[in-house]
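Renewal narrative, Specific Aim 1. Our central claim is that a sequence can be written position by position from structural information alone. The example that follows is taken directly from our test logs and has not been curated for this report. It begins with the structure tokens describing the chain, in the order in which they were read.
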């Protein structure tokens, strides 16, 4: 009886201390939750005069984050607009002169033709014909000169218009707005500080759509397919499972990362598997460690309990 009792106790102790095994059709992986981070940078330089960023605050695409000092740009805009007005007025005056000289050139051409015919009949003198020809050349030369001036003024007008467009674009960039919906997790500049082009002023993350990267041993990766259902658990909610799906599988194996737990003793080669997570309630946060179970066999129902294999 003592031997039987000892054997029974040993068996119970063995069963209790044995690591839980994975159910059929289920693979386990662990990792850290990640989010898509958007680095917001200044596109133009200027001093921050209005800062509306609050870390942890959700923002929508188009919300104003920072406003830069735009006084210098507005002065340059006013100067360029004045230059445009002056060029337009100059073009109007040149066009009026050109119309006059074109009329003179037409009259000179008619006079030349008339004196040429009169000279052929002997009625007009050579001096009269030469004078008419000189007048024609003078008026035609003046027309060409005014046409060249008009073309130059038109080019200056186009250049000034483009300069004004550029200034307006730079003015628009002094209002730095959220490019997408997300949550502001890093505020990297304060009012009064000087921003320069390319300077990061904030970091946004999309907390509604997160991902978890787990690692599967090389010999098991053939079972994983895109779209496989998965369940994720975090320490903050140990009794709750979050639904996920396989959204990507690495195409190249790698050595097991040091901070990754696998059910077998340090599998040498693993493949990264990315799980997509919807997070409408906002319970999941980037950086949280998480356990994941992937159901690679659709025919296999989810078990009542999911344990972390050791």
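The sequence written for that structure reads:
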């Amino acid at each position: 009886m003592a031997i039987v009792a000892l054997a029974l106790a040993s068996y119970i102790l063995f069963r209790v201390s044995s690591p839980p095994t994975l159910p059929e059709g289920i693979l386990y992986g662990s990792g850290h939750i990640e989010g898509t981070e958007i680095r917001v940078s200044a596109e133009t330089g200027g001093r921050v005069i209005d800062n509306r960023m609050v870390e942890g605050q959700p923002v929508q695409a188009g919300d104003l984050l920072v406003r830069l000092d735009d006084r210098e740009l507005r002065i340059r805009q006013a100067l360029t607009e004045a230059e445009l007005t002056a060029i337009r007025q100059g073009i109007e005056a040149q066009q009026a002169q050109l119309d006059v000289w074109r009329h003179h050139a037409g009259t000179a051409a008619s006079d030349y033709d008339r004196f040429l015919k009169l000279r052929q009949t002997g009625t007009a003198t050579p001096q009269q014909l030469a004078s008419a020809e000189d007048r024609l050349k003078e008026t035609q030369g003046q027309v060409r000169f005014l046409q060249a001036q008009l073309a130059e003024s038109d080019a200056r007008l186009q250049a000034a218009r483009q300069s004004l467009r550029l200034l307006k674009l730079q003015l628009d960039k002094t209002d730095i707005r959220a490019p997408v919906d997300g949550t502001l997790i890093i505020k990297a500049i304060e009012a009064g500080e000087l921003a320069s082009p390319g300077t990061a002023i904030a970091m946004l993350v999309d907390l509604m759509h997160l991902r978890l990267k787990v690692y599967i041993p090389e010999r098991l990766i053939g079972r994983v397919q895109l779209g496989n259902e998965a369940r994720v658990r975090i320490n903050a909610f140990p009794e709750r499972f979050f639904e996920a799906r396989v959204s990507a599988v690495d195409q190249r194996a790698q050595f097991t990362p040091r901070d990754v737990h696998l059910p077998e003793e340090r599998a040498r080669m693993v493949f990264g598997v990315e799980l997509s997570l919807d997070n409408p309630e906002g319970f999941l946060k980037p950086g949280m460690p998480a356990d994941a179970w992937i159901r690679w066999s659709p025919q296999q129902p989810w078990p009542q309990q999911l344990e972390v294999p050791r």
